[in-house]
Design goal:
- The complex is a heterodimer of chains A (218) and B (135).
- Chain A has 218 residues and is mostly helical.
- Helix content of chain A is 80%, strand content 0%.
- Chain A is built from nine helices and no strands.
- The relative contact order of chain A is 0.16.
- With 135 residues, chain B is an all-alpha fold.
- Chain B folds into two domains: 101 residues, no CATH class; 30 residues.
- Chain B is built from five helices and no strands.
- In chain B, α3 packs antiparallel against α4.
- Classes of the chains: A mainly alpha (218), B mainly alpha (135).
- At the A-B interface, α1, α2, α4, α6 and α9 of A face α1, α2, α3, α4 and α5 of B.
């Protein structure tokens, strides 16, 4: 395995980080240079996704007072289901941390177990959110009702779609791990999945703080 | 007994002592926040404490809002500070922000896009506040 020397100050500051001996001692997903580059690429995807969510947050912040004839944030939101969704997602963030932790020890069964728990918690989150959305629409608070609700459903719904996609992705990864075991490619995919899942947890914390708790503050 | 990961950690950090040349030392100090760092220990204490910390931050935010102990502006500010704390915790504890083969370059675009995002939100609110004033 060859390593690409970096130009300039940083490669001068850390010449030893690029020696093959040092690289081989790294966890599986970083030891292979190609997979390591894919991980950096996935960080760049998260950076662009962050900008999408920032745009949706900006739209929500601007449209929040424009409730037309519909309910306001204070009238619509309930903190009970919101707390449940938050606890489900925070716990799944912890369990996906344990997925990577057990993967790096080569504990494949433990890794798969934590992954399944993560998926169930994620599914619980999506179910709670859908229940909330259908409840709102049944009350006449749909995305047609006001600019506030359009922005609300767009922001929170985009996050929910991300979580749904993450569940499908993880199911595909479980099949792949069952067939091929833990190698540098599947390890990299599990690692990037964990980055994605924690990232969604961070976005949710801001949705919780700005949309739900912010809505109750008034 | 050192675990496999601890041995890996030692192998990675070995030979990263202070550089003899002072110019190199200064550059290293300047870019220290990009220095790669790998997580790994025998029992997932970091994850466990990260989880406990994230729960504490969440319940603190809910408690503050339910009991309305502060003025709305101060309350929203404090909730956002708790959210920023939660985000840093997730990045540091769970996302292993500085794991990388070389310098952890992802830190720079991530910080930049976060700053752009905050700018977009604040500037949108600011410019739309003018619109309500003149229309």
């Amino acid at each position: 395995m060859s390593s690409i020397p970096l130009e300039g100050a940083v490669s001068a500051a850390w010449p030893e980080a690029h020696t093959p001996e040092a690289a081989e001692a790294l966890p599986l997903e970083f030891a292979d240079q190609e997979q390591s580059i894919a991980i950096t690429g996935f960080w760049m995807f998260l950076v662009t996704d962050l900008l999408i969510f920032a745009s949706l947050f900006a739209a929500y912040a601007v449209y929040r007072p424009m409730i037309a004839s519909g309910p306001s944030a204070q009238q619509l939101f309930h903190l009970g289901p919101t707390l449940l969704e938050t606890l489900l997602l925070l716990t799944s963030s912890f369990t996906v941390g344990l997925v990577v932790w057990s993967m790096r020890r080569g504990h494949r069964r433990a890794m798969v177990g934590w992954m399944v728990i993560t998926l169930l918690l994620g599914a619980g989150f999506v179910a709670t959110e859908l229940h909330e959305f259908f409840g709102d629409v049944a009350l006449g608070a749909s995305w047609h009702t006001s600019a506030f609700l359009s922005a609300f459903f767009l922001l929170v719904g985009t996050h929910g779609l991300h979580v749904t996609f993450g569940i499908l992705w993880a199911l595909a990864l479980l099949i792949q791990v069952a067939r091929k075991g833990i190698n540098s490619i599947t390890a990299r995919k599990i690692y990037t999945f964990s980055l994605y899942w924690h990232f969604l947890d961070i976005i949710w914390v801001f949705i919780l703080s700005i949309v739900y708790l912010g809505g109750k503050i008034g | 007994m050192a675990t496999v990961v601890e041995q890996q950690q030692e192998a990675v950090t070995a030979g990263r002592g202070p550089t003899a040349g002072s110019a190199l030392g200064a550059e290293r100090a300047l870019l220290r926040f990009l220095e790669p760092h790998f997580a790994g220990e025998g029992f997932p204490w970091t994850q466990l404490w990260g989880y406990v910390g994230s729960l504490v931050l969440t319940f603190a935010a809910f408690g503050l809002v339910i009991h309305h102990l502060l003025t709305p502006t101060a309350l929203l500010g404090l909730v956002l500070v708790l959210a920023a704390g939660q985000a840093s915790l997730q990045l540091g504890v769970f996302m292993h922000l500085r794991e990388s083969r070389g310098p952890a370059w992802q830190v720079l675009p991530l910080g930049l896009s976060f700053a752009i995002g905050v700018g977009m939100i604040v500037a949108s609110l600011w410019i739309m506040a003018f619109k309500w004033g003149v229309s």
